């Protein structure tokens, strides 16, 4: 390794990555200079290489830094930025989310004891990895306590407060303003798509399960999106480009937001997976980041001719095309082989990804017993913060969209 082996992009990247006390404040861990302060003609004045990493002196330096300033970077960090880690570590560049059908989730789902989850960080880490991978997790033996769900959420992060409150009750209520608070069948949907930042995880703790019926249903929207991408490509692109409006409107509240059914990552970071029918695990060819589907809370469509961006082939999806695509998506998510059904028992808590795992409920008879769930939400920011902290604690690394990253460290 010589000074000449580094391109200008390499030099800018390495200088920007310096975490010495002059560049990163020791207590706040925040950056003390701006990337735009780096000279555009920055060169390596002196380079020292050792098995532990490299030490670099720069010329010209960032304004305000002396010639004695040194950037020290570890071998682990250099492997990451050079892409070497991707070749050496079979955990690199592998999407940690796996699509599932009923058979797959029945075989692989995780049931954890409440006390173990609350008391042991390793069990918490196992729970977080599992709910990220499959979008569904169950806890058992949760205390008969209205505040238990707050403790469950609190292990992952601060509660996501909404107009429903920090926590909320799912019961059959006369003259309810939300279909969830009735005893009738509630179809597959996601919560709060009419808000700017819908919650990432939803938690439902079963406090009473004494009414006949009321089984919970779950379906993996990522699997349906993947199947459409592989076998119904035109319809897949319609759902990527046709805007759907969602609202929650009553006398005192009016929430409204527009979303595409499929949201994709801006660029693919992950290797394509095989056809879901093959049984292979891995990332999604469809490159999906979020799915939005909540028919009970759908608002009237906006028919402005220039509302939706043009598709790659140059045409704009029509409402008739959306209808065809939505029918196919609904057919896939409600197919018997793709539905996981379970009747929550008292003391169970289900945790699921609200931007991926669709949930529904069968009708129940409130006149013959009480059905009471205590619910709460968690934001994606809180969830992934906790995930990264535990990854660094137990694995010495963290993963962003499937890419293994190591904490930037000095020698």
From TrEMBL:
* Single GO BP term: carnitine biosynthetic process
Give any GO molecular function from the UniProt entry. Answer: metal ion binding
Question: Does the keyword RNA-binding feature in the UniProt annotation?
Answer: no
Q: One of this protein's Pfam families, by short name? A: TauD
SUPFAM superfamilies attached to this UniProt entry: Clavaminate synthase-like
Q: Which residues form the TauD/TfdA-like domain?
A: 112-377
Give yes or no: UniProt keyword Oxidoreductase: yes
Gene3D superfamilies linked? 3.30.2020.30, Clavaminate synthase-like
Q: Which UniProt keywords apply?
A: Dioxygenase, Iron, Metal-binding, Oxidoreductase
What cofactors are annotated for this protein? Fe(2+)
Gene Ontology cellular component annotations, sorted alphabetically: mitochondrion
Spell out the family assignment given in the record's similarity comment.
Belongs to the gamma-BBH/TMLD family.
List the protein's name: Clavaminate synthase-like protein
Look up and give the organism this protein is from: Pseudovirgaria hyperparasitica
């Amino acid at each position: 390794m010589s000074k000449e082996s580094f391109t200008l992009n390499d030099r800018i990247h390495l200088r920007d990555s310096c975490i010495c006390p002059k560049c990163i404040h020791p207590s706040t861990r925040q950056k003390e200079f701006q990337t735009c302060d780096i000279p555009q003609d920055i060169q390596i004045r002196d380079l020292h290489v050792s098995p532990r990493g490299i030490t670099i002196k720069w010329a010209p330096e960032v304004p305000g830094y002396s010639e004695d300033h040194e950037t020290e970077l570890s071998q682990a960090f250099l492997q990451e930025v050079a892409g070497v880690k991707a070749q050496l570590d079979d955990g690199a560049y592998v999407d940690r989310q796996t699509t599932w059908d009923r058979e797959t989730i029945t075989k692989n789902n995780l049931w954890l004891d409440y006390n173990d989850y609350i008391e042991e960080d390793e069990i918490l880490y196992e729970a977080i990895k599992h709910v990220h991978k499959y979008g569904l997790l169950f806890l058992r033996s949760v205390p008969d306590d209205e505040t238990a769900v707050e403790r469950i959420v609190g292990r992952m992060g601060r509660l996501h407060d909404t107009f429903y409150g920090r926590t909320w009750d799912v019961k059959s209520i006369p003259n309810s303003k939300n279909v969830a608070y009735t005893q009738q069948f509630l179809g597959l949907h996601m919560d709060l798509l009419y808000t700017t930042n819908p919650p990432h995880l939803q938690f439902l703790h079963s406090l009473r399960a004494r009414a006949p019926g009321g089984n919970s249903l779950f379906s993996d929207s990522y699997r349906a999106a993947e199947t459409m991408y592989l076998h119904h490509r035109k319809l897949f692109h319609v759902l990527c480009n046709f805007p759907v409006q969602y609202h929650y409107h009553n006398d005192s509240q009016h929430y409204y937001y527009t979303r595409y059914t499929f949201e994709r990552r801006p660029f693919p970071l992950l290797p394509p997976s095989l056809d879901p029918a093959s049984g292979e695990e891995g990332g999604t060819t469809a490159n999906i980041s979020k799915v939005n589907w909540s028919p009970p809370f759908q608002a009237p469509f906006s028919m402005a001719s220039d509302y939706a961006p043009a598709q790659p082939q140059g045409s704009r999806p029509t409402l008739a095309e959306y209808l065809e695509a939505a029918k196919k998506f609904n057919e896939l998510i409600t197919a018997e082989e793709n539905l996981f059904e379970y009747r929550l028992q008292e003391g169970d808590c289900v945790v699921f990804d609200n931007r991926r795992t669709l949930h529904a409920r069968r009708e129940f008879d409130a006149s013959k017993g009480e059905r009471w769930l205590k619910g709460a939400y968690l934001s994606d920011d809180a969830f992934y913060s906790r995930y990264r902290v535990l990854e660094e604690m137990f694995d010495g690394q963290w993963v962003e969209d499937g890419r293994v990253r190591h904490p930037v460290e000095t020698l």
